[in-house]
Amino acid sequence: PFQGTMGCGSSSVKVWTEEDYQKYKRLMELWESLDKDHSGTIEMKELRLHLHKQTKSSSKKIANSVALAFDILDVDGSGNISFFEFMTHNGLKITPQAKKQIQEWEENEKKEDTNIERVKSEDVERTRGEGMKAKARKHREKNASKDSSTDSDPTKSPKVKTKREPKSLSGEISPEPASQIPRSAIPEAENEGCSSTPSHDHSRDPIT
Q1: Hey, is 66 helix, strand or coil?
Q2: What's the rounded Cα separation, in Å, for the pair 86 and 81?
Q3: pLDDT digits over 43-58, tens only?
Q4: H, E, C per residue of 128-192
Q5: Residue 76 to residue 80: CA distance in whole angstroms
Q6: Does residue 55 contact residue 62 with C-beta atoms inside 8 Å?
Q7: In which residue ranges of the chain is pLDDT below 50?
């Protein structure tokens, strides 16, 4: 919108204030709603259409309002309202100094927006990390509570590993070695008419 003639006859240079910049932003929104084709100027048909939507007045009344507006705003008589004519009429003169100030304000706003987005992103990541830590802590506490309840309950005995019997190559249980079999498990020999004690050889007794 800065393209075109300055349209200000004053030789004095006014330094814009923050209030001027905020006013400029509001006027820019109005300008963009009027300049539908983004040509950089406002034509009569564009102003007529805008007033028709805003006021719902009769076509004749709107036509008279448009003609009066152009008589006031179209200073150079080009048949269109330029951006500088529009701003000057609303009390803002777009001087080179003002253009420089506007650009600086816009750059600062972009930096602030970037910083805000960065802070938001960091907050999201921090919140997500804290949530994961809290979840892990609850999980540990839950497991610790289970272990504590198992230790304190006498009905829940710890699991004892049973000794598995060795198996032979055929898959059957191998007999235990004789050295590992208790003597009480070996049956005594049963011989009818024979004593378990050895017999005495009388042939070797001395002759008396």
Answers
A1: helix
A2: 7
A3: 999 999 888 888 878 8
A4: HHHHHHHHHHHHHHHHHHHHHHHHHCCCCCCCCCCCCCCECCCCCECCCCHHHCCHHHCCCCCCC
A5: 9
A6: yes
A7: 3-11, 189-192, 194-195
pLDDT of residue 3: 46
Check: CB of residue 97 under 8 Å from CB of residue 19. Answer: no
Place of tokens 């907050």: 123
Q: What is the pLDDT of residues 5-36, one digit of tens each?
A: 444 444 455 788 889 999 999 999 999 999 98
67's tokens: 């003609």
> In sequence order, which residues have a C-beta less than 8 Å from that of residue 95 and are 6 or more positions away?
6, 8, 13, 14
| Neighbour count for residue 139 (Cβ, 10 Å) | 10
Q: Which of 41, 2, 3, 23 is nearest to 90 (CA)?
A: 23
Nearest of 194, 176, 193 to residue 185 by alpha carbon = 176
Question: Phi, psi (5° rounding) for residue 12?
Answer: -80, 145
pLDDT, residue 6, reads: 42
Q: Give the closest residue to 16 by CA, choosing from 93, 83, 85.
A: 93
Query: What is the per-residue pLDDT for 121?
Result: 79
Distance in angstroms (rounded) separating the CA atoms of residues 200 and 83: 146
The three-state secondary structure class of 82 is strand
